[in-house]
Specification:
About 25% of the residues lie in helices and about 30% in strands. By secondary structure, it is of the alpha+beta class. It has a six-stranded antiparallel sheet. A hairpin with a 2-residue loop joins strand 4 (about 95-105) and strand 5 (about 105-115). Helix 1 packs across helix 2. The longest helix is centred in the middle third of the chain and has 18 residues, at about 70-90.
């Protein structure tokens, strides 16, 4: 379709971008209901140059309702964990927190990073020392095109 518009990556020197968040509802690839809270400001770009890995920090829920979503008390704990994640990984813009997803039984926090080795080290040494209420798991994968982020929007 004309005119063609191609997204370009955002230059890191343009960070931070204004906080613009949206809550979206849909289904995951297995058909389960999913709630996504995403920083929509990055949607105008094809990622951020040098932030070539996505980080998924999965937190299985401890206290959920009949549909598998967090109760009010669980939501408070998850908010505390999210704050810990931001405090551990975002300093000096080493990583960017871009989304949180919830499906029945699990919340996942999504970041993009320019230093995957440091993320793993900070996860092992810092985040695990802060989170006692839940088991947390990490997965780091190359994603310089920000495909995971695009799927969430």
């Amino acid at each position: 379709m004309w005119p063609f518009t191609t997204k370009e990556p955002l230059s890191p020197d343009k960070l931070p971008i204004p906080d613009t968040w949206a809550v979206l509802k849909g289904h995951d690839s297995n058909g389960r209901p999913m709630v996504v809270r995403a920083h929509t400001g990055y949607g105008k770009y094809k990622g951020v140059t040098s932030y070539g890995h996505h980080v998924s920090i999965a937190v299985p829920l401890v206290d959920s309702d009949l549909d598998g979503f967090p109760t009010a008390g669980e939501t408070e704990e998850l908010t505390r964990i999210e704050n810990d994640i931001c405090e551990v990984f975002e300093p000096n813009r080493e990583s960017l927190f871009v989304a949180a997803t919830t499906i029945p039984g699990i919340r996942e926090f999504i970041l993009y990073t320019k230093n995957p080795e440091a993320v793993q080290q900070k996860f092992d040494n810092d985040l695990l020392a802060r989170v006692f209420s839940h088991k947390v798991h990490i997965k780091i994968e190359p994603d310089k095109e920000w495909r995971l982020y695009e799927k969430l929007l």
